[in-house]
Amino acid sequence: MSNTVPASVRPTLPAMPAQPTARQREALPADRADRLHMTATRVPVEHKTFDYIFETDLDALLAEYETRVVVADELTDPAFFGCVVVRTSSIAILLSPNLSEYERDFFPRYLICQALGLDLTPLPTPFAVKVTDMTEAATA
Amino acid sequence: MNAFDFSRWAFLSEPLPAVLAECGAVVEETSDGGWFMGGIRPDTARLSVVISDEVQGVERDLVVRGLLAAWHYVDVSDWPVPMFVQGGQS
User: Fold this and answer.
1) pLDDT by residue (tens digit) across A61-114?
2) Pairing outcome for strands B47-52 and A67-71
3) What is the domain extent for residue A88?
4) What single-letter DSSP state applies at residue B47?
């Protein structure tokens, strides 16, 4: 068998490794890896890193993390740049309509890092991040 | 009843026994876990969908559907359960 052919119909995602990582190889017993023609594994831990999140194609990243990005055209508060809501199986990101093209690429990545709890260097002034526990609001 | 058309929607919406029947597949359980969620082993007359016993409930249902969908060339890169699928018919 071959593990080198991605099953996806979009086989050219640049940041998706075509070969199993060393960790994945360790996770799959050799006899099973040899007999199975297709395998599904959880999002590799290598993908939960600052480098991966900022280097991967944004569409692939959003799909991988079940992330939906909404640009809130009705939001006019100049102090708001975006927010992220973390749910059990998905992430929702709300962005200000006033962001530049670069910022629309940057902030989803930054907020995914926040959602994953990665240790980030604080953003430079004038940006600041506020974390709100909405658990009680969600269950009320 | 509409014919099963092997589309993304069919794999997601049809009852799982119907999906398995249309694909000629059976589900096996394995104690393999960790990052491994499941796999497909083509046998002579059927497909065996091998699922980790650590994958349960809705996740298990969707991984079975996702593997069969991927086997039939459906794009599962944004499947409801995030999973990294490798391999295929060859």
Assistant:
1) 888 787 889 998 888 788 788 888 876 556 889 998 988 899 899 999 998 888
2) unpaired
3) 66-139
4) E
Are A66 and B82 in contact (CB < 8 Å)? yes
**Would you call B54 helix, strand, or coil by DSSP?**
coil
Question: Residue A133: inside a domain, yes or no?
Answer: yes
List C-alpha distances in Å: A103 to A64, A98, A100, A122. Answer: 20, 9, 5, 16
Within the 13-72 window of chain B, which residues sit less than 8 Å (CB to CB) from chain A?
Answer: 30, 32, 34-42, 50, 63, 66-67, 70-71
| Tally of domains in chain A | 1
- Give the pLDDT score at A38: 86
- Closest partner CB to B78 (pick from A27, A29, A63): A63
Probe site for chain A from B35, B59, B71 (most A CB atoms < 10 A): B35
Q: Assess if residue A125 is contained within a domain.
A: yes
Q: Is the pTM of this model over 0.80?
A: no
ipTM of the complex: 0.85
